[in-house]
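Ticket 4471: requesting a sanity check on a complex prediction with zinc ion. Repro inputs:
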Amino acid sequence: MLERIIYIIGGQVQGVGFRPFIFREAKRLGLTGFVQNTPEGVHIEVQGPPAAIASFASFNERLPPLARISRISQKNARVITAEKGFKILHSSEGSHKGHAVLVSPDVAPCANCLADMSDPCNRRFGYAFTNCTDCGPRYTITKSIPYDRPVTSMACFPLCRRCSEEYHSPSNRRFHAQPNACSECGPVLWLEKANSPSFARCGDKTCGIFPIRLVRYGVSSSDATGNDAILLLLQELRKGRIAAVKGLGGFHLVCDARNTDAIQRLRKRKHRPHKPLAVMTADIETAARLADIGPLGSNVRTLLESPSRPIVICPHSSLPRLLSPDTEDIGLMLPSTPLHHLLFHPEFCGGNAEDSLDCLVMTSGNPPGIPLCLGNREAKNKLAEIADLFLLHDRDIVIRADDSVIFPALPDAGLTSPSMVRRARGYTPVPALFPARASQKNNQSILGVGGELKNTFCLTRNREAFVSQHIGDLTTAESLKYYENTYSHLLALLEVTPQIVVRDLHPDYASTFFAKNLSSQLQIPLIALQHHAAHICAVMAEKKIARTVIGIALDGTGYGVDKTLWGGELLLVEPCRWHRIGRFTPILLPGGEAAIKSPWRIAEALWMQNDLHGHAPWHEGREESLPAIREMIAHGVNCPTSSSCGRLFDAVSALGGLCFDITYEGQAAIRLEQAQDVNEKGFYHMPIVQNDTLLEADVQTLFMQAAEDRDRPQIMASRFHKGLAKGLAEWACKASDIYRINEIVLAGGVFNNRSLLAETIRELSSHGLIAVTPSAFPFGDGALSLGQAFWGDMVLCSGECIATDS
Ligand SMILES: [Zn+2]
Ligand SMILES: [Zn+2]
Ligand SMILES: [Zn+2]
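Returned structure tokens:
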């Protein structure tokens, strides 16, 4: 008596050792049949006695570490007589749409691979591209699906005999590990000086035969290759040099994190005077010495050690203040690739352990406003002014992915979940799942194109919403190109065609033009969703909320339906409808964009509007522009109004003399947050007044109180934060009473201010309201695309005819 069952498995099941795992399970139980990657998912057929088939059925309780099953179907099939053995078949080609395969994100090296690399008797001792089915690069080396070596950037590295044996041996941990490689057949490292003539090649289709490859690249004899390259690099880093190091999803700029001269030089060359720089530490013990990462089992440690290896923003850094001059926090991460591990372990490369550095600055390798460099030649050109040396290799990066950045949960402060700041490497392309809707069509796909700054886009496939990696500000031709490439890449991985495009209301965003073009090209509807409504929708999407909520959206600026700049908004968001029910009283931005760069202008405007004597504090060098600015304010010329909460933070920060001009986004607010006197119990009052149909939060009154304390900025900062949080809660209460809703969604980049967030959650709950906050996706504009796609999904499922905007 035999039975035969066919399974089709969807989810993260390709490139994660799933087929070998099924193979071993089937073998163990003496089953026959096969397993195969297909565009619909992993196809399994097993045949054997009913008892063995029944034991096999519980395989999903024993999955390999990276496998995630999102759907599974099974049916009985006719028994095949005289079938012999269990096989892993080649991936099937096919252009079927609506399949269920997910490519895994890139994963940090597993313990087994690290052990291989640190064992002098292992053939991968000190090999910088070691990986297995449980770890290694995935998303950033994969061009399309099904995930197999020929569609990755490993295609041009034919496996050597021993790697091939591993690859084909089902009992081996590297069985069907697509990026499998060793020093004999895999990618190689080399070091180049910035001024050496560049022969660094990438994407060279002819690079099949290893031993002559480097010669063909023209790497000169003075440059080091392989492990010598790492040793030489370390030598130079110890001297305070700056290097560009090719990583997984792009280049990092690297220097010794304890060398203030090197850090200073890096800041100068990168034109980045104050923005925090991330630091990679050798291991978790080093991280614990450099910042407060909490006790064993703390969320900070869990995040640091997670296979996604994000940059975790840790409190109380003991590293040079120059790394994050505006805050005591420091962004730490642990090594995310085998190459990073080697940078901290010269002893694995034939050097001395004592020569190692225990922490390195690792900041994105890109000139200002330009996306991460991808290719070797590109990096050598674009980073020539910044890096002294280049650690290069010949494995191509198919698509960029920046490091992800995350705030850990701080339970003591009332923040029970982490919050994502920048979602990219290690997280993309894991999807969010929309709530199931009866009317959801099969193979439904929606594109949310995102905003302008911190852009991402979101492409859906049925209920799954794939938010792209952080792309950045779409303000240069290069970043737009990156956007388009990433879109094509994700399209190829998902094999969907969007049926509807959702964009921001802003008429001039680059993403708006992209949406318009695509909509007319594909002849599909285009709808626009207001910026702050999209912020609230993003949280609803993450939390699978399909009912009406009250939302507080606080951010820099977003285009409003009245064509003014919004940014402190109280919204009622229903499925398919939203209403603005409140706002911050608008303030003036003298000079528009210039006011965003120079918060002292906004402080001056608020000062004048409230008829205060003299001037808001400003420092020397402002006298010249002051009369012109007062003109602007008095006559409303070149002086847009905005209900932005971000701008209010800017103004108060300038008022306290904490930040007059910013060098990076959010700087003034960060300084204000950091300035707080933790022992201060007082707070300002932010009145909530009914103004026509809107509940208006009176920020002018708040500002006036702050003005009284401007000579005591620590007290002022603290009272401001507390007062604002109390005001927000009162605002929400009023709306809650009117609409009988007690779920308050908090969204917008201002909530990256952790003390405001904690305070607001506390205040809301003391009024019996429930704060709903994002965790897996950012508070800021990185989540706009998710909100847009969610909105598109609701609109499409509502069956309402879609009014297309053009
Ligand atoms: Zn591994
Ligand atoms: Zn090999
Ligand atoms: Zn925003």
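Notes from triage: The longest helix spans residues 713-739. Leaving this open until the requester confirms.
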